[in-house]
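Appendix B, Record 12. Input sequence as logged:
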Amino acid sequence: MLLGRSSECARLLALVDKARRGESGALLVRGEAGIGKTSLVEHVAAESGDLRRLGTRGVEVESDLPYVGLADLLRPVLHFLDRIPERQAAALTGALALGPAVAHDRFAVAAGTLSLLGALAEEGPVLVTVDDAQWLDPYSLDALAFATRRLGREGIVVLFTARDELDEPASRLAAIETMTLGGLDAESAHRLIAEKGTAELTEREAARLLAEARGNPLALIELPALLSGSGAGDDDPHSAAPLPIGELLAHTFGSAVARLPQEAQDAMLLLAVLGTRPLAGTEAALRAHGLSYESLEAAEAAGLVVEEQDGYAFRHPLVRSAVYHGATPVRRRRAHHAIARSLQGATAPALEQYAWHLAASGAEPDEHVASLLENAASGAPDTLAYPLASRLYERAARFTPTGQRKAERLLCAARASQAAGSLDEAAAILDRSLEHAEQLGTRLDIRQLRCYLDVQRGQPTRSRELLRAAVDEAEKVDPALAAVMLGGIALTELAVGDLTAARGTSAAAMELADSTRQTLLPVRLLRTLVLLLGGDADAGRSLLRELAGPLASPDPAFPYPLSGVGGLCHLAAEELDEAHGLLDRAAYTARASSAVGLLSHLLCTLSVVEFWRGRWSPSLAHADEAVRLAEATGRLIEVPRGLAALARTEAALNREADCRRHAAQAMEWAAATELPMDAARARGALGLLELGLGRFEEAVHRLEEVRAFSRTHGRGDGLYLTWAADLADAYVHLHMTAEAREVLDVLEYEAGRGHRPVTAGAAARCRGLLEPDAAERHMRRSLALLAERPVPFERGRTEFAWGEQLRRQGRRSEARRLLERALATFERLGASGWAARVAAELHAAGGTEVRPERAPLERLTPQEMQVALVVGRGLTNHEVAERLFLSVKTVEFHLSNIYRKLDGVHRRAQLVRLLAQASEVSAV
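Logged structural output:
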């Protein structure tokens, strides 16, 4: 057991024990330099000899080389690649420069990492260690963080270590449990000095060391040599000044380096600059500098470097830091230049290292080098991975003199970075590109791409301002581009809920598009959505039918998801089956291609569609997955959308605590991402919750807020932002007849905009409540209209409202028939609050409450439901794991839980039948 670390060892070993039982876990160990993070992990690894171990360590000089850390980690198990899905294996081999690259984004690499670890775990428990995560390249760290968050029942334990003064790794690993490592207690510190101290100390020197080291083990071991005989602890005015541990340790190691022969110092500097390279690569660099393998022997004898199986390594990262930062700038540049010379003639990815070292050597701009790098980068996406292509384009720009060519190369780097899923990085590169752009066309391309990035990152206001400023210029040189830009502006206006602005913008975009005689699907699609939401809905439907062909195979490279916009069009037209078909196919395709960012958008809208279709378990599953994927990919705009969808379905299900929590989160995210419409949707969900619970005053309070938002932004009522029918219902129960009639006017206006049977059915129900003498005619019309669409919840509400009215009129027998049907519908859906209200009315009408059996699928968690849905497509466990970005073992675990929870379901065929039956029942 490590000195003074018994509780910490026990915590880590508990994770190892869980891995032996088939459970996965992860921990981030944080602490200052020298505090013993690595020693703790190494001790646990030594105690876990029965686990297969994979390990890597971040190296400061390699922190901007894409996937270098992941390649180091996975190198020993690459022979398992044939056990994971082919697309993921191709993404991994491309990203790690092990074979031809393919056009996958970085989340395909992350999914492949998860699958590879899962395949390895099929042979036994696995221990993954990632030391000095603060220096791991962001691509590797994101892939490992993504994989770690999705571990479940594989038997894998992942241990990260990171310096606690650096926030970057902590933010990327925020979802992973953290343990902060403090200093040793006094007794353990005394023992450590006695056992491993590097020099004898006087009593005063020892006291000073204990006070200043603050229990830092490395300081306790290394500093005695510095303090011995120094008089530290004497009563001088400076003795009370605290010693910075990191700086003092670096000074200690620097002193040790300075005592070495110059040849050894030069060799160590090259080693510090090289990072993690095989032994052969180290020797080649040494020879290029006039040194040899033997040059490092003195450093090895001094205990500063150690020889490992595949090369030399520094004994501690602080030794590397002391060597590199202790050298003069001239010596550092000379070392970088020597390594660059050794890499001349290399191909990607070594070419990127060549460019990096050449830049670090202080080389001037050189068009020959820039062209070499650009030519290598332009192989993407067919022969190069997007992250590496982005870095090569950036390096090419570094060696390009200021001007147009520099801007063009930076623009290419930003496009590759966006395709890789690095939105913040792409935005920063675009800002630099704009500084050098001399041609109008390039400036417009930059602004357009920046707009779409800002929308995805939750900054729609900035996006709209950028594009608005560029449209007038674009119209002069490229009307088609100007039309698409206007369409982008309309998209941002719709995202924030400003339908008034979107009407004018989309009309202007269509006028420009018509003048070009080009199809311009994005422009026409957005105009269609605007018409369906708040204009001539019949014209919108006609336009939507014309676009059916192009929508069947939209351009996947377009910056925003055209299939998702098409799904919103069908939803606005109240064509629920068509919306489901389009979105379901698009989501299936996105899963197959690991297009995680696109998938989160599609699932948000699919969740809303499934809510209206009465398939609430899939609705919850889709929204839950959308939120998790959006957070993982940085598509912040999708987070409040998904949370609002979750809240509405939970409101209908009377899951009060979950609904309130997700609604609050949606409103918080909506404020942070400038998306007030999603805050309004969350408030609408709370209104529905209160209505179902019979709290009509509270329902009115929430729904009037939604009504105010809708009025301010020129919106009426629809299936995406819905409020009018709920508010009218609450007003009627509070005998606020005049207010209810005002809301009914909104519903009837919306119902009159083309054929909208769901809205028309809700309007007829409200009129029936307000006109008791003509209630039968209006309620029958409501049920007839609602029968045109698969909306069981709405039909149940009409049956309930009519039955409630008949009971109060003394027509108890007729009331019972309607109330029994409504009760059966609500019970089947799981709408417990509504079912309780109906049951009370039924009892008052002299009926006997007969509660049908709860729908079996409601017993499943959202993730279990998502697994069941994909299994229902006839896919194997490996295919399900690929589509859901899970490991095979986690899929197997969820599937076993599904079989346990669903009585009579023990095989895939039975599960498929149950899903089909549930879909049929929801349409009844």
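The two ends are 65 Å apart (CA to CA).
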